[in-house]
Amino acid sequence: MRLMSFLSLLLSLALPAKAEVEVHATGDLGVVIERTTGSVLIVDQSDMDVLARVEGFGDLSHASAVFSPDARFAYIFGRDGGLTKLDLVTQSIAGRVMQAGNSIGGAISDDGRLVAVSNYEPGGVRVFDAQTLDLVADFPTQSKTIGLVDAPGGRFVFSMWDTGETWIVDMSDATPDVTKVSGMGANPYDALITGDGRRYIVGLFGEDGMSTLDLWSDAPVAQRILPGYGRGEEPLPVYKMPHLEGWALAGDRFALPAVGRHELLWLDAQKLTELGRTKTHGQPVFAVARPDGRHVWVNYAHPHNDTVQVIEAASGEVLHTLKPGPAVLHMEFTARGHQVWVSVRDANRIDIYDTQTFEKIGEVPAETPSGIFFTARAHRIGL
Amino acid sequence: MRLMSFLSLLLSLALPAKAEVEVHATGDLGVVIERTTGSVLIVDQSDMDVLARVEGFGDLSHASAVFSPDARFAYIFGRDGGLTKLDLVTQSIAGRVMQAGNSIGGAISDDGRLVAVSNYEPGGVRVFDAQTLDLVADFPTQSKTIGLVDAPGGRFVFSMWDTGETWIVDMSDATPDVTKVSGMGANPYDALITGDGRRYIVGLFGEDGMSTLDLWSDAPVAQRILPGYGRGEEPLPVYKMPHLEGWALAGDRFALPAVGRHELLWLDAQKLTELGRTKTHGQPVFAVARPDGRHVWVNYAHPHNDTVQVIEAASGEVLHTLKPGPAVLHMEFTARGHQVWVSVRDANRIDIYDTQTFEKIGEVPAETPSGIFFTARAHRIGL
Fold first, then answer.
1. In the record, which residues are listed under signal peptide (chains A, B) (predicted)?
2. In chain A, residues 54-73 whose CB comes closer than 8 Å to chain B
3. Do B69 and A19 touch (CB under 8 A)?
4. How many whole angstroms separate alpha carbon B274 and alpha carbon B254?
5. CB–CB of A242/A282 below 8 Å?
6. Is the pTM of this model over 0.80?
């Protein structure tokens, strides 16, 4: 045997065998908020598996996530004002900023360059460079700031609990351009943007009804809708008011929680007028539409939070009732809709269901899981 | 050293190291078809750059691509019947099958497990395991087979030029279930599925008008629409008939090429009835909607194929005319809509435009580029 071959043979015997490498790509990954432990799971949707647990996210008792356009980074917004950049490739924290006090909600710009975070204290929105987390703009509002979303054209939109204003901030040029719209109503408590980025819909706590803005207008003006949608016959405290993330667009209609009633409302998606109601098992919290818009999956507030119902959008009929377990907090569909992942907080588990047959097809262990966010959100306006 | 420790050490040296997990970001990648050279570029949309050129795809004179759910693999369908699995992470071909003769069109199932390819010769659809490219099912039709799409629930839908039938194949169980619908019309030449996976719309060459199926129905029946949409006053040859990939959904309406006229048609997306027309610079080939649905970008057939127009969906008005260069073949928006990439075949270049300002913001060199496909398509029904 020649010398080089002999040396190669010796080396191959002496060195440890080469490690097997499992390659994952970010297109089908997701993050799961572990609310009690301040940690985040990185999951692989296709493999129905956990890739890693990452610690150090602070107070995740109310948390959300957005993704960079390449689906490499998740930006996790924590209740304590923490903004944490999670690298799904290295499975570690790439940056972290304590950007304010009591804080709910964040968004990423359409080009992925800016991350905005709203806060209750001191009140306002701060905008950060998505790469470095350097502060690039600060919008103090002297008000609890709610309903922060991204809109096409490099914009962020948010509203003020105290003043009833909505601000539209255009970050696409060197100098931010701020349009202030007043008269949205008494005590906006939450808002959403429609999937086409056109309409900004605001929930009001201080009066019955909701307000909407047409973001395609050069000078948007508040329009009132749903005059009967209010705090209910027995006025609810604000923390029991339905969150607008609980709205779902299913085909030509929205599904949304009724206020203080065991009902799901249906709205014509163009006119925003009521089409009808479905009686439900409990007070709906989230309605989530299967991506084809044919069905809506609904979870409920305590004490009915062990139950999920599947409702057909066209007819409003309940097709199926599931009992995943104690404290169902969140549901997330795969992007093409073939599976739905359901967090069952008090069973420390995520259940995975087939969305055609409603059969449970898998599960993933998680510590008090709440929100589940798949990377496909990187590619959708407002998410 | 104690015996057990020594044995453990020996074992750890002898056994392969535990599998390492490597994650790669694939969310903002894309593939560009280089039609003359049978090669494919892998591009990075955020960086506006080419990552690699990969050779060996055969005849790409008419080619398309779909993506695996993790956005790791692109499946490229070539004119010569080639089905090639491209690994975007290793930037190399991971598998290749010459699955038939003359062939146009392919699709991937909603769960990413199966890839289907249709062909003109011998006529039919073949279904392959997406991982191994093993043949798992064969549907001979004795007809040129066209209009292959995926539909929710693990289904594939395709139509027959010779017999005017549409087949709906459900692959979700061990045995495929085939529903055959007759009477779609004379000589279906192309088809599309709406983004909600509900309606399958078929273009007819042998008669004026189109046909549609409601895929939510248990027993779908062909419905005629657009009775005036035919081969035109001077009947066109089939290769000049507008391809249904040229349709765009913009908000509440479809934009589609008129037949043999310099016009864009607008259809009510619910009723599929005509709303109006916009006079255009040339015979439209592709209308592509900006993801928020506010604008549609349109390119034209030779000799007007150096021009692109931006048309406002709500008003039907032409907002802007661009002259990217000779032979604009394809346009692809980033997922949230802030950029559009435009292939300029005879300038060997892809132009990149800002979709708010219409300014050119970058370019990428490419050999006779035609189709551009971003990985965000992995997450959309029918793409």
1. 1-19
2. 67-72
3. no
4. 9
5. no
6. yes
Which structure tokens are listed for B204?
């007819």
Domain segments of chain A as ranges = 50-225, 242-382
Parallel/antiparallel/unpaired status of strands B188-193 and B199-204: antiparallel
Give the DSSP H/E element, type plus range, for residue A331.
Answer: strand A328-333
| Closest CB from A24, A172, A252 relative to B21 | A24
Distance, CA of B173 to CA of A220 (rounded, Å): 51
The ipTM, to two decimals, is 0.91
Closest residue, chain A, to B217 (C-alpha): A294
Phi-psi region of A337 (alpha: psi -120 to 50; beta: other; left: phi over 0): left
Q: Which residues of B touch A289 (CB under 8 A)?
A: none
Report, as an integer, the average pLDDT of B190-218. 94
A375 secondary structure, DSSP code: G
For residue A274, which amino acid is it? E
Across chain A, mean pLDDT equals 93
pLDDT band at residue B241, thresholds of 50, 70 and 90? confident
Asked if the domains at A50-225 and A242-382 fall in one CATH topology, the answer is yes
β-pairing verdict for A21-25 and B20-24: parallel
Does B5 have pLDDT greater than 70? no
φ, ψ (nearest 5 deg) of residue B11: -65, -40
Q: Does domain A50-225 have CATH number 2.130.10.10?
A: yes
Name residues whose C-beta falls within 8 Å of residue B376's C-beta, 6 or more positions apart in sequence. A378, A379, B27, B334, B335
Beta bridge partners of B228: none
Distance from the Cα of B252 to chain A's closest Cα (Å) equals 9
Task: Quickly list DSSP for B195-213.
Answer: TTS-EEEEEESSSSSEEEE
Interval B286-330: pLDDT, tens: 999 999 999 999 999 999 999 999 999 999 999 999 999 999 999
Give the DSSP H/E element, type plus range, for residue A213.
Answer: strand A210-214
Cβ of B20 and A16 within 8 Å? no
Going across the sheet that includes B82-87, the strands are B64-67, B73-77, B82-87, B92-98
Chain A residues close to B25, C-beta within 8 Å: 25-26, 70-72, 88-89
CATH top-level class of B242-382: mainly beta
Give the Cα separation of A298 and B231 in Å (integer). 48
Please write the tens of the pLDDT for every residue from A283-322: 999 999 999 999 999 999 999 999 999 999 999 999 999 9
Q: What token pair was written down for B370?
A: 């035609």
